[in-house]
C-alpha cells in the first residue's frame, strides 16, 4: 500500500512550519491494488513526547488523497508520519452490503463477518460494553439472512467501534517528518511601521528640527495600539554616518540638519549595537519596549547588515567589505538605485568573523527585549549564513521571529522561508488586478503555506505603488481590506491612514521620503476632520480579532464573479476549531478598480461552509452593518467611492 506526496512538506528536508493555534491539514496519497478498502492514520508525537493517532478521511473521489486537520496547540518540534493499512471491516461491510441487496453469498459473507466480529471482541483494548456489542452482532450473523447481513454491515455502532480501533492486516508507513511549531505571533499579527525620530519631532523657529526620541515616540503607542495593531516595527535606531550622507529625496546634497538615512548605520557614536544619541539611551529604549508591552504591542527592530563609511567595522575590519582596484570600498547598488552612504558586507572574506559578529549583534538586542527582527535585503547575503544564524538564535531563544524583506526572484524568496525565516514580504504589493490576486492568494495559502508565511504589507517606506499613487482614497481602502482578511499577517507603514500618495517623480517612493527627513503628522486632527483611515484600520483589526477564520492561512478559497474587477474569496473555519463550537465563515467581495462602480453576480461554492447549492442563508456586512439573504448566486453593487468592499459574515443557520 504505497504512500505518496505527504504534506506538510518542505523541499530539501527542512522542517514544515506551523504556529500555535494553526489548523494544519495533514494530507497523503494512499491506495492499494484491487478493490479492498484501506484506512490511513496520522501518528503525531508532540514536543513533550506524547503520542496521538488520528484517522484520515478520503477527499474527492478518484484522487486517493486523504486528510486529517489538526489544531496545533503546543510550541516546539513535533514528529509525524502516515500509516496505511488494509481495513478488513470496511472491505467486509462494503461487500456484505452489496451482496445482501443482490441476494448472493449470504452464508459465506455472514461467516466471514462473524469471524471478524468475534476476533475483534477478544481484543484487550476494547471496553466491556464494546465487546458485548460486537459479540451480539456476531451472534446475529449465526443465522444467515440478507436482511440481517445488511443490517450488521450498516450498523453505526459496529462501524464506530472499528473506526476507533480498526482490525487491520498488512500496512505501510512513511518516514518520520518534523513540524516546527512556533509562537502564535510568528503566524498571526498586525504590524505598524514608524520612524521614532519623527514622533515628537519639533520644528524650531529658525527652521531647524529637534529630533523625536524614544520618550516622545512612546506617546504614539496608545494610538497605534488603539487601531488594533500587535507589532510596532522600528526602522534602524543606530547612529547614522555623515560621509556621503543623503539629503532630502535621496539627493547627494545635504543641508544643515538633514538627519540622513537610518540605513547608513554607524558613526563615531557606535555601530549596530548602538543607539542614535538623538533618540536616547539604552535605558530609554528599554523603557520604550516596556511601554509598548503595556499597550499590547511587541517591538520589531530592523536588522540591516550593512555599514556607513563611518562605521567602526570599516576601520577595525576592512576585510569585511569589497575593496575596488583603486583601493576604495564599494558602496551598495541596486540599479538604478545607488547608495553611496552604505557599504555592503562581503561574507566571502571572513565568514567566521562576520557570522560571529552578526550573532552577537542579534543577541544584544534580544537582551534588550527585542524578539522580532525585520531583516533588510536578506537575499543579498548567503543563504547558509541565515540558516546558521536563525538556528543559533533559536537555540538561545525559540521565540525570536525573523521577517525576510526580500523582494526578489520566487526561488530565492521561497528558499529563505524554507531555511527558517518565520515571515516573508511578498509580491502582494504589486498584485492589484482580480486575476493577479486570485493567482497570488491561491499560491500563498496552498502552494507554499507549509513553510512560507506572507506578511501582506500594503506599503512601506520604500514602496508606494502606482495603484496607491493614482487610486485615491478608494485604493487605500481596498488594499487594506484585502490585506487584513486574506492572510493572518498584514502591515502598514505610518502615513497610510493619512493617504500619503504623492510619489517622487518617476519612482515608487513617497516624495519627501521619511528615510531622509523628519515627518510631521497630525494624527488626531486628521481623524477629527474625517480624513483619516484610522477608523477603517481599527475596524479591520477588530474584525480579525473577532473571527478566528481570519487568523488562519491555509483556509482561503477563491470564488467567481462575472466582472473582471470583482474579486471574491472566503475564509472558513470549522466549528471543531473555534472556541464557541460554531463555524466561522467570511466572504470577501472586493471591487479592485478604485475608479468605478461595479455591478455583477458572484458565484459561490457554498458547500465549503456546509450550505447546499440553492439554499438560502443570511450574511452580515461587517463594515456597513447591512444584512442580506444570499445563496450561491448573488447580485452585488460595489461603489469604489463609497463602499468598495463587502466583508460578509455567514450567519449560522438554526
Give a description of the structure.
By secondary structure, the chain is an alpha+beta fold. The chain is 28% helix and 25% strand. The strands form eight sheets. An eight-stranded parallel sheet has the order 22-21-20-15-14-11-24-23. Strands 2, 4, 5, 8, 9 and 10 form a six-stranded mixed sheet that branches. Strand 21 (401-405), helix 12 and strand 22 form a beta-alpha-beta unit. Helix 1 packs antiparallel against helix 4 (146-153), helix 10 runs parallel beside helix 11 and helix 14 (466-486) runs parallel beside helix 16 (534-546). The longest helix is centred in the C-terminal third of the chain and has 21 residues, at 466-486. The model has no long low-confidence stretch (mean pLDDT 96).
Structural class, judged by helices and strands? alpha+beta
Number of E-state strands: 33
Task: Give the rounded overall mean pLDDT.
Answer: 96
Shape: elongated
Strand content: 15-25%
End-to-end separation: 43 Å
Radius of gyration: 30 Å
Strand arrangement in the largest pleated sheet: 22-21-20-15-14-11-24-23
- Counting DSSP H or I runs of 4 or more residues, the number of helices is 16
Largest beta sheet, briefly?
Answer: 8 strands, parallel
Helix content: 25-40%
Query: Could you list the spans in which at least 5 consecutive residues all have pLDDT below 50?
Result: none
Amino acid at each position: 500500500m504505497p504512500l505518496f506526496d505527504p504534506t506538510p512538506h518542505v523541499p530539501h528536508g527542512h522542517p514544515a512550519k506551523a504556529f500555535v493555534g494553526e489548523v494544519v491539514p495533514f494530507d497523503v496519497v494512499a491506495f492499494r491494488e484491487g478493490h479492498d478498502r484501506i484506512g490511513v492514520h496520522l501518528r503525531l508525537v508532540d514536543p513533550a513526547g506524547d503520542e496521538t493517532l488520528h484517522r484520515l478521511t478520503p477527499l474527492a473521489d478518484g484522487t486517493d488523497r486523504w486528510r486529517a486537520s489538526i489544531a496545533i496547540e503546543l510550541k516546539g518540534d513535533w514528529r509525524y508520519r502516515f500509516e496505511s493499512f488494509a481495513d478488513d471491516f470496511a472491505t467486509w461491510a462494503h461487500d456484505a452490503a452489496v451482496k445482501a441487496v443482490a441476494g448472493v453469498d449470504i452464508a459465506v459473507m455472514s461467516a466471514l463477518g462473524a469471524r471478524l466480529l468475534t476476533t475483534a471482541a477478544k481484543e484487550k483494548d476494547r471496553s466491556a460494553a464494546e465487546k458485548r456489542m460486537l459479540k451480539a452482532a456476531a451472534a446475529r450473523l449465526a443465522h444467515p439472512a440478507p436482511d440481517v447481513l445488511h443490517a450488521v454491515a450498516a450498523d453505526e455502532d459496529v462501524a464506530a467501534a472499528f473506526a476507533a480501533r480498526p482490525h487491520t492486516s498488512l500496512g505501510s508507513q512513511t518516514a518520520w517528518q518534523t513540524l516546527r511549531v512556533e509562537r502564535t505571533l510568528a503566524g498571526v499579527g498586525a504590524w505598524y511601521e514608524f520612524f521614532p525620530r519623527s514622533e515628537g519631532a519639533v520644528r524650531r523657529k529658525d527652521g531647524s528640527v529637534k529630533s523625536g526620541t524614544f520618550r516622545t515616540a512612546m506617546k504614539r503607542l496608545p494610538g497605534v495600539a488603539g487601531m488594533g495593531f500587535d507589532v510596532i516595527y522600528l526602522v534602524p535606531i543606530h547612529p547614522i554616518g555623515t560621509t556621503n550622507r543623503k539629503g532630502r529625496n535621496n539627493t547627494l546634497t545635504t543641508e544643515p540638519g538633514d538627519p540622513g538615512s537610518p540605513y547608513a548605520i554607524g558613526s563615531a557614536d557606535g555601530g549596530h549595537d548602538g543607539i542614535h544619541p538623538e533618540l536616547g539611551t539604552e535605558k530609554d529604549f528599554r523603557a520604550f519596549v516596556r511601554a509598548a508591552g503595556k499597550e499590547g504591542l511587541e517591538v520589531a527592530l530592523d536588522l540591516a547588515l550593512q555599514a556607513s563609511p563611518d562605521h567602526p567595522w570599516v576601520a577595525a575590519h576592512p576585510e569585511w567589505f569589497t575593496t575596488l582596484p583603486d583601493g576604495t570600498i564599494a558602496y551598495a547598488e541596486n540599479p538604478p538605485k545607488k547608495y553611496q552612504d552604505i557599504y555592503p558586507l562581503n561574507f566571502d572574506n571572513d565568514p567566521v568573523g562576520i557570522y560571529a559578529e552578526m550573532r552577537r549583534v542579534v543577541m544584544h538586542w534580544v537582551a534588550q527585549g527585542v524578539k522580532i527582527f525585520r531583516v533588510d535585503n536578506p537575499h543579498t547575503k548567503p543563504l547558509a549564513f541565515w540558516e546558521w544564524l536563525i538556528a543559533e538564535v533559536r537555540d538561545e531563544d525559540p521565540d525570536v521571529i525573523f521577517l525576510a524583506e526580500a523582494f526578489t526572484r520566487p526561488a530565492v524568496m521561497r528558499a529563505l522561508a524554507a531555511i527558517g525565516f518565520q515571515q516573508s514580504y511578498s509580491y502582494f504589493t504589486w498584485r492589484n488586478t482580480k486575476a493577479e490576486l486570485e493567482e497570488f492568494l491561491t499560491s500563498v495559502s496552498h502552494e507554499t503555506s507549509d513553510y512560507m508565511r506572507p506578511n501582506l504589507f500594503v506599503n512601506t517606506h520604500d514602496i508606494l505603488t502606482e495603484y496607491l499613487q493614482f487610486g485615491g482614497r478608494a485604493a487605500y481602502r481596498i488594499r487594506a481590506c484585502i490585506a487584513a482578511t486574506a492572510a493572518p499577517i498584514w502591515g502598514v507603514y505610518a502615513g497610510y491612514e493619512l493617504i500619503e500618495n504623492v510619489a517622487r517623480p518617476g519612482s515608487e517612493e513617497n516624495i519627501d521620503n521619511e528615510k531622509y527627513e523628519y515627518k510631521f503628522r497630525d494624527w488626531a486632527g486628521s481623524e477629527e476632520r474625517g480624513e483619516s483611515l484610522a477608523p477603517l484600520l481599527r475596524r479591520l483589526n477588530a474584525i480579525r480579532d473577532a473571527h478566528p477564520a481570519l487568523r488562519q492561512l491555509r483556509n482561503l478559497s477563491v470564488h467567481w464573479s462575472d466582472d473582471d474587477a470583482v474579486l471574491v474569496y472566503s475564509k472558513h473555519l470549522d466549528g471543531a476549531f473555534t472556541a464557541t463550537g460554531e463555524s466561522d465563515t467570511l466572504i470577501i467581495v472586493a471591487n479592485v478598480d478604485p475608479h468605478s462602480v461595479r455591478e455583477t453576480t458572484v458565484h459561490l461554492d457554498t458547500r465549503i461552509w456546509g450550505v447546499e447549492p440553492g439554499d438560502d442563508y443570511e450574511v452580515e456586512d461587517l463594515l456597513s452593518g447591512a444584512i442580506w439573504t444570499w445563496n450561491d448566486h448573488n447580485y452585488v453593487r460595489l461603489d469604489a467611492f463609497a463602499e468598495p468592499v463587502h466583508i460578509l459574515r455567514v450567519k449560522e443557520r438554526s
